[in-house]
Amino acid sequence: MSLEIVMSIRSKYAEAILDPGCGRKDIEFRRRPPAALRTQDRSRILIYASHGSGMLVGEVTCTGLIEAQPDDLWRIAIARGFRGAIDRRAFQQYFNGASLGFGLLLESPIRYADPIQARGWAGFTPPQSFAYTGSIPASLLAAADAARSS
Fold this sequence. Notes:
This protein is of the alpha+beta class and 150 residues long. Strands 2-5-4-3-1-6 form a 6-stranded mixed β-sheet. The mean pLDDT is 89. The chain contains 4 helices and 6 strands, in the order βαβββααββα. The chain has a single domain, classed as Hypothetical protein (Archaeosine Trna-guanine Transglycosylase, Chain: A, domain 4). The two termini are 20 Å apart. It is globular.
């Protein structure tokens, strides 16, 4: 994997991704994805649980990206059997006014046994949506690597 991203994901959706037994969520819907995902085959996404703990709770591999009008994105996701842990109404509210939607295809979730308190980490600003790891303190990335191997 050549691309690493820290992505803010609401705690309930982070839990759905990291749920044991291959997760309850294997597609992450976004109005705007990291542009670099369009050219990468596989990317490591560090999950920052927003709206709650402020911790790096785990990671997941992004294996692809679907780009389509929101109604088509929903149909494609359902037809391919992806689970978004979101109902149709919430999906429509989220994409209201958007001409395009994106689905990040997720696999191989890893829940950190000891989540990392990232909020307040020197040099770390929680991303509103995502941040490339080049802007993340090296010490925080090292802690994530250690958490993955424990």
